[in-house]
Amino acid sequence: MRRHVAPELAGVDSPRDVAPSDARELTRMLLRRLAALEEGTREYSYVRSTLIELNLSLVRYVIRRFDAQREPQEDLLQVGAVGLIKAIDRFDPDRDVEFSTFAIPTVLGEIRRHFRDTTWAVHVPRRLQELRIALAKAQDDLTTRLDRAPTVAELAGHLRLSEEEVIEGLTAANARTTGSLDFGSADDDESGSPLADRLGQEDAAIDLTENLVALKPLIARLSTREQLILSLRFTDELTQSQIGARLGLSQMHVSRLLTRTLKKLRDGLNAA
């Protein structure tokens, strides 16, 4: 049945088993056949599907350029296959161009678009996403040319951008991935303890420290007796009766003086 649908495949059990040299010639013939067929027909669908299966090796070749840890290979294969289908649909067999020469940039562009649009851990503007791609290409080009990593100034000159724009783009690239606070690093002195255990926490005494700094000039403006009562009450931790006995005052008088002094300090803090 298949031979009647696509005579070019006579004797071929599976397109995946075709040798690369034969696949190029077979692809060339099938692309010409596809261009002559009416879209939507059974034969058109069969030839198109065969071309996709015949050239999936191009997609696998392209995805080897990408880090497998960033995205599952199967996901990239699906995305790349979309690019391959677009290349098949857009290719003009009358042009003197190899299909692989046309298809590889199309597949590569589809995968890069996938990374640009769907794999960012934090949403950033499209302008910065595109800038990150341009920076990655510039870094590769300059690293090859200079035999070292390029500086921000060299990247800016290469892309005709300001150094501030380059720094912004490099910073945006960090939004692509995030790390769990539960993960540690074997390089850390903490023997890989979770990052969450080593993050700083809000100091409960920070407000107290700020208040003490703000109180210092207010206390300096108090009378000598008021400063002494404060010291006896809050530094020596004497009771109002003990303070009264030491200063020759009644407990009630000490209470009124202490209340008045604390009110002065509170009013001073609120006005600060």
From TrEMBL:
Q: Which CDD domains match?
A: Sigma70_r4 (cd06171)
GO BP annotations of the record are: DNA-templated transcription initiation
- Mind listing the UniProt keywords for this protein, alphabetically? DNA-binding, Sigma factor, Transcription, Transcription regulation
State if Thylakoid is listed as a keyword.
no
State the source organism's domain of life: Bacteria
Do you know which Pfam families this protein is assigned to? Sigma70_r2, Sigma70_r3, Sigma70_r4
Name a GO molecular-function annotation. DNA binding
Domain spans labelled RNA polymerase sigma-70? 75-88
What PANTHER family does the entry give? RNA POLYMERASE SIGMA-E FACTOR, SIGMA FACTOR F FLAGELLAR
Protein name in UniProt: RNA polymerase subunit sigma
Query: Source species, please?
Result: Kitasatospora aureofaciens (Streptomyces aureofaciens)
